[in-house]
Structure formats: structure tokens, C-alpha cells
Amino acid sequence: MQPWLGEEEVAAVAEVIRSGWVAQGPRVARFERSFAARQEVGHAVATSSCTSALHLALLVAGIGPEDDVVVPSFSFIATANAPTYVGARPVFADVDAGTGNLTPATVEAALTDRTRAVVAVDQGGVPVDLDAVRELCDPRGIVVVEDAACAIGSTYRGRPVGAGADVTAWSFHPRKLLTTGEGGMLTTPHEEWADRAARLREHAMSVSAAARHAQVLAPAEEYLEVGFNYRMTDLQAAVGLVQLDRLDAIVARRRQLAAAYHAAIGEIPGLRAVTDPGWGTTNYQSFWVEVLPRHPLDRDTLLTRLAEAGISARRGIMAAHRQPAYADRNTGGADLSVTERLTDRTLILPLYHQLTDDELGRVVDVLRSTRGG
Ligand SMILES: *Cc1c(COP(=O)(O)O)cnc(C)c1O
């Protein structure tokens, strides 16, 4: 992955510096409004990362100690850490082999008497079948939080992902499609949840710092509960506004490159590439390939062959339940065999906006040369 940044971002940051207002202020507010409009959701609250947005999402949803939160183990570790931050227990559920995402069946297998929330991830950009998960969860009073860290520019049933969730968290880390260096966003249709998240990210102050500093005689503030400093800066938001304008071009180019990978990989026996599910489109944030048992090489040997050709690919998505942070905890004990299979057998191919057709051809040449007899 490489971020796509240009002179427009440089100019936007320079303008913020010249303005003298670099912390959370007018540009963060503008970025939030633009983001909410683009994602077709009522409210957006900018944060320091997706991890902090997930933490706030669980807090505003009322999740706390004694609660169980179903999460996929097949995800970046932050998905499991967020329930842990609020004192809840992450309960790991398995995923579908085709999408890498939770399904109603895998969630149901992980439910307990204490399940109060599910964090449904759009893994690698592939939209989760949110309506199906909600059909299971809504009647049980279980809140579905969407972890759309990877999924800006992906769609679900003709709308942007995240638009149908009670609360969604986004990432602007450079590993994702849209970057602000570090940064995140919480979106929600619920005004009270957005208001509380906006306060919690700013030490739970009754008056925002931006509002106080904009006045000569600042009103006295109160600290309404124990909050956090999860603010985004105006420097970051200025970059985010430019990046938002680039998003359509980024998604279009990624999908074009993915189509070229698909055409080539479809002819190589023993490799299976991630693709659009029936209910939406992926932004191909991670173009992952499963190395099937009938392929002559295993995943790690294939990664080595690519590295020998100067091509940096990566192991697939991690399994959180195998990490030391969670291996010795009670995380529910559901069957996670698909997670383990995907984690062991998948690799992520180079895919970024600036990747040329020739460079993609070099990757494909190595994959073709390893198909065996
Ligand atoms: C990247 C990622 C995160 C964390 O995002 P940060 O902005 O780095 O905190 C959370 N969940 C998933 C699924 C991710 O891929």
C-alpha cells in the first residue's frame, strides 16, 4: 500500500499553518460535515483514529463491564481491543470463507446471555451483510457496531457502507484508502450518540475548546464525565478534505487494478481471489488471495518467491485469538476454523493508486511461474 498524496494536500496544510489555528477547529467541523454527507449518515465525529472511534462507539452504545461483545477474530487487533477498553469481554466469532466477514450463523454460534453488541467488520473493504446480521441482533436488543476502518468507498445495497448501522467507525491510517496520517471518524444517525461522542473525545467538556478560544471572555466549562483526548487536528482535517475529493478516483483505479488481477488469477489453478459479494462492492483495500491446498506451493513459499522477485506482498489478515494478548483469555470458545484457514493460507498482493499496469504484470508473472505442472 502507498497513500496517494499530492501538492493539493501540501497547500491545504500550509494554509492551516498560516491561519494560526492548528488544533481541532473549523476544518475538523467542515471535514465532519463533508464526510457525513458523502457517507449518507446524519452525524460524523472526527477522532484521532479508528481505534478511538470504536472505543467511543461502544461507550455511546452503553456497553460496559459484564457485557459480551461478539467480534471477528479475523481482524486487526483493534476490533477486539475496543470491547476490552470498556471492560466488556470480546467473544470471537468465525467468518465466511468467501467474504472474510461475520454472518448471522457465525454470530449466532457466539451469542451468550450477556451479548449486548456485535462489531461487524467490512474486512479488507468487503461489505458485511449488515441487514442479515441486524435481523438476528435487532430483536434481541443487540447493538450492531460497524467497523468500516477499511471500507471507505465500498457500497452495501447501493449505498455507502456504514449508512445502515447504529454507529460506524472509520480509519484514516495510511494503510487505508483515505488518509490524514492518523485519524478516524465515528458516524451515527443518532444525534444524542453523536453529541456524547463529540464531548467524550474532548475530555467530556461542556463547551468545546474551539468555542471557548473563539471568544474573548470564555464561558466556564464543566467536565460532565470522564472523557478522553481523542481529537483530530485541523492540519489532519485539511488533508482529509482534499483526500475526500480524490476518493472516487482512488476507488475506480483500485477496482480497475483488481479486475486485471482477477483476469490473470482466474487462470491459475489453486489460487482464489477476494471479490465483490452479492450485496455490494468492495474498494479492494486488501486484495487477498487464498493459496488452496492443490496449489504446488504453500502461502509462505509463495510470499518468498514474490520477495525474491522484489515484490513486497503480505501475509493475510491476522487472527486475534492467537495473539498473546488474547490467547490465554476466555473469549467464548466458538469454532474458528475458517478464520484459522484464511489466516494461514491468504496473502495480500500489492495494490495502490499509483501501481502501474506493468508493475501489476510483474506480480502476475511470478504467480504464473509458480503454478507448477
Ligand atoms: C486499521 C483497522 C483498525 C484501526 O484503525 P486505526 O485508525 O489505525 O486505529 C480497526 N479495525 C480494522 C478492521 C482495521 O483494519
Automatic annotation (TrEMBL):
Alphabetized, the UniProt keywords read: Aminotransferase, Pyridoxal phosphate, Transferase
What is an example of a GO molecular function annotated in this UniProt entry?
transaminase activity
Pfam assignment, any one: DegT_DnrJ_EryC1
Supply the InterPro entries for this chain: DegT/StrS_aminotransferase, PyrdxlP-dep_Trfase, PyrdxlP-dep_Trfase_major, PyrdxlP-dep_Trfase_small
Q: State the needed cofactors, names only.
A: pyridoxal 5'-phosphate
Keyword match tRNA-binding: no
Write out the similarity annotation: Belongs to the DegT/DnrJ/EryC1 family.
What is the name attached to this protein's record? DegT/DnrJ/EryC1/StrS family aminotransferase
